[in-house]
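FAQ: What does the model actually see?

It sees only this:
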Amino acid sequence: MFPKFLFPFLLLFSFYDMPSDAQKKKESLLSEKVSQMMDWASKRAVIKMNGDKFRRFVKAPPRNYSVVIMFTALQPQRQCGVCRQADEEFHILANSWRYSSAFTNKVFFASVDFDEGSDVFQMLSMNSAPTFLHFPSKGKPRKTDNYELQVRGFAAEQLARWVADRTDVHIRVIRPPNYAGPLLLGFLLAVIGGLAYLRRHNLEFLFNKNVWAFSALCFVLIMTSGQMWNHIRGPPYAHKNPNTGQVSYIHGSSQAQFVAETHIVLLFNAAVTLGMVLLCEAATSDMDIGKRKILCVAGIGLVMLFFSWLLSIFRAKYHGYPYRAN
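And it is asked to produce this:
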């Protein structure tokens, strides 16, 4: 038996170990929030949120889970084509996590549309879409919790690397099968094979230097315009401000680009190349002097006009241009 003088201490410790009403209420609220988030995630990999849901399940404590939110503007009147493309990639990422064997309540994926949660956009002083933010389980979002969309692009694989860096949750991206590429390649090979078969008795076109020169030139223009960078990074086609409606086709940084920007650069480089070809033809062809003068003027005009536009794009992206020695 315990000595009588120890009973007050035992009674004190028992009260000390008992959770308070506030603690019980906090745990009950947290359990309710997690259960609700799990229920939503079981029905839809990307949870749709409005202002009330955002304030209750993301901003308000307690919360022991992270939330990755895409702020977007998908309504047709917003005319945000980039938002739809980013939404598809975001759903691929969320579905890859939702249906993986490692799925837990450690991180959830959600979206807030501008027309359904404009108050959230105002609360966060957000004026562009799409935007990806990570809300950690503890503390406020840091600068690194804001995804660098213009640099990394919105490909699901890039988003997965960012999520892993912020949450230590590694998601293996599983894309639905896409047969468009193989079908297009098969069609192209069939067309080439069909043409070769039809002209099997006259294959001199395969030895035509102009055909090979044009093919090589097209390949060089495609590669130098940044198409491979687009394929790897998956940048948006352009950027539209949902508040002002202003569309940007040229990225303001030298570290990133838009798909539309590469198309513009491709067109400008092709025009400069055409101008140089016309100048070479004017200098070496056997045409009469009048036609050669026309080719010369047209070539000079193309080179000067489109090369100056290329320099304007370069100056807009590299703000220190023209460079000067100190």
